[in-house]
Design goal:
Order of helices and strands: EHEHEHHEHEHEHEHEEEHEHHEEH
Number of helices: 12
Strand content: 15-25%
Structural class: alpha/beta
CATH class of one domain: Alpha Beta
Largest sheet: 5 strands, mixed
CATH superfamily of one domain: Phosphofructokinase domain
Helix content: 25-40%
Strand order of the largest sheet: 3-2-1-4-5
Mean pLDDT: 94
Radius of gyration: 22 Å
Number of strands: 13
Low-confidence stretches: none
């Protein structure tokens, strides 16, 4: 690679394996003899000139990142406006890049992060500075276009399928005199990939989950209640998995809380308690519900080996693309075989990914809209295979690492944005 430094940043909701990608980025930079900085809290860290010198970390600490959940350098939800709408913001970013001789920027995130990387990749010439930008895929929602799957999803899928299988045994044990219906809510605002992964927990008709509710299928309360009633009558109990993003016939989120997040997306409340209340009121059945929330995306102890391997691969490839002088691309996962499962990494232009959303194909959902098909199983199953457990200490807890995150000295006035 030419002279200059590489800057890596994490964005959006973190995953069980995003730090594995970070470790791969730093380790590949060290092999390439390139100084790798990290931005504290994503693109905000660049704007604030809060940079971290990863060369101050030991090789052992960087290796330990591979099995540590969370975002080691901090993340953020912050979407850049267009250069026409906020030119000063871009001038500040270029100013920071110039001050610290940063020639490559790697942004590890989802749809909005790909959009940020794409915008930055285009402004270098406009503002007179040569900066190469590489998007690095990450999202538990599995909704990035082009790539076969997203690093982070396989581990959430595994957590979800295992959790449903285990809690189903609990519900079945108590159903005769206690809980008849259990509702578990999972992440997925517009795409039902995580909800679909719950379907891997059951292999036969009466296995849990008995109903899966997808954002791609309009929620019909009457049909839902009828299926719950029929399942309890036939099986004796019922497990429901619901995506947070299911909508009613009016097109509104069933769980909409009336607020928005930093990206302008509707803030969702709780689908599970809403559905539980509906079952309790209309069917007079005892019902429990659960909201795994952050647990599902931070469960490094049950991460998928496939997911871990892919997270490492995209981090390594991103640095290699930068070394080759590429700009405005993202390393994506290409499935080359279902059985045996095989995959490879290829480069795709960011403009084919940014601001696009991959939803569940209708062929993946059963005709009644409450389950997954064999086609979906063939797609999902390889993504949760294998285990990549963290090391455990004598106290019985996983041994995770906290980096020193030594700050790079600032050279510019404070950002007043």
């Amino acid at each position: 690679m030419e002279n200059g430094k590489l800057l890596y940043a994490q964005s959006g909701g973190v995953t069980a394996v995003i730090n594995a990608t970070a470790a791969a980025v730093v380790e590949t930079c060290r092999r390439q003899k390139v100084t790798a900085y990290a931005a504290r809290n994503g693109i905000l860290g660049v704007l604030r000139e809060e940079l971290i010198d990863t060369t101050k970390e030991s090789p052992a600490a960087i290796r330990a990142l591979r099995h540590t959940p969370g975002g080691a350098f901090g993340s953020c939800r912050y979407k850049l406006k267009s250069i026409d709408a906020d030119r000063a913001q871009y001038e500040r970013l270029i100013g920071v890049f110039r001050a610290h001789d940063i020639r490559w920027f790697l942004y590890n995130g989802g749809n909005d992060s790909a959009d940020t990387a794409l915008k930055l990749s285009r402004i270098g010439k406009t503002l007179g500075y040569d900066i190469r930008c590489i998007g690095v895929p990450k999202t538990v929602d599995n909704d990035l276009a082009v790539t076969d799957c997203c690093p982070g999803f396989g581990s959430v899928a595994k957590y979800t399928a295992v959790s449903v299988r285990e809690c189903a045994l609990d519900v079945a044990s108590m159903a005769d005199t206690s809980t008849k219906v259990f509702v578990m809510e999972v992440m997925g605002r517009h795409a039902g990939w995580i909800a679909a992964s719950a379907g891997l927990a059951g292999e036969h008709r009466d296995d849990a989950p008995h109903l899966i509710l997808f954002p791609e299928i309009t929620f019909d309360a009457a049909k839902f209640l009828a299926r719950v009633r029929e399942t309890v009558a036939r099986v004796g109990w019922c497990v429901v998995v619901a995506s947070e993003g299911i909508k009613n016939p009016e097109g509104k989120f069933v769980s909409e809380a009336g607020t928005t997040d930093a990206f302008g997306h509707a803030q969702l409340g709780g689908v599970a308690p809403a559905l539980a209340s509906l079952v309790r009121e209309k069917l007079k059945l005892k019902v429990h519900w659960a909201l795994p929330d952050y647990l599902q995306r931070s469960a490094r102890h049950i991460a998928s080996k496939t997911d871990f391997d892919q997270a490492v691969a995209v981090g390594k490839a991103a640095v290699e693309y930068a070394a080759e002088g590429r700009n405005a691309v993202m390393p994506v996962i290409v499935r080359t075989s279902d059985s045996p499962y095989r995959w490879k990494i290829e480069a795709t232009a960011l403009d084919k990914i940014a601001n696009r959303e991959k939803k569940m194909p209708r062929s993946y959902l059963t005709r009644d809209g409450f389950g997954i098909t064999a086609v979906a199983r063939n797609y999902l199953s390889p993504l949760i295979r294998g285990e990549a457990p963290p090391p455990y200490g004598r106290n019985g807890l996983p041994e995770y690492v906290a980096l020193k995150n030594v700050a790079v000295s600032k050279k510019l006035p404070a950002w007043d944005g």
